[in-house]
Amino acid sequence: MEIGFDVIGDLNLSPTDDFNWENKATSLYCIITGNISSDLRTVLNTLVHLSRYYQGIFYNIGTLEYTGVSDSQERTVELLDIVKNIPNIACLHHHVVIIDGVAIIGVNGWDQDSIIREPFATNFRRMKYEDINYLTRSVEKLQKYLDVTKILIVTSAVPKKELYFGEAPEHLYNEPIDLDYCIGYDTEMKISKWVFGTYGKDVDITLNEINYISNPHSKDEPYFAKRITIVT
Fold this sequence. Notes:
By secondary structure, the protein is of the alpha/beta class. It contains four helices and eleven strands; from the N terminus they run ββαβαβββααβββββ.
């Protein structure tokens, strides 16, 4: 079976931006890597708008959605409340969705450059390691699920330094563990694709048999989804 997903990422919308997705959907399902907006009403309106064009949307909370808040957990609860009231949308925050043999795992991943000035930036390393731990435990557990043949990982942050293509922030070279640490627990080679945000350029590259994809929005030119397919 072949399953298609539209990848949308890093919309970075303000309340005054005009976002219209009419006639742009190319798949039944959509993956949003995060960074829709720092304004919750804009996040809500964007998700409601996109829900009209897809049978299912898998939304991953980005770092932008936490801009200016002092309590990251409280903001997460607010975003989860927004999503649960919109038909056809599942939030991927520390959540696994299985559809037709594909397990979709989502975490923020916490890009330090995006939150270094935020009130809770001192918790950056703890939050990042919590996400790494969640990914690792989920990948390890899914090895035993016979009905899961492929794993699709979605993160707001870039999973490894190499995917900056020589433009990685300096602080990343001091990090002992990359976000993709979980790959070492993929003993059955189920991880097929890794969709991510934050990096400002399109990426579609295969490294060690895993396809890494990024499709950031550019306000200077027309923006379209990037369609990916997974064969189960």
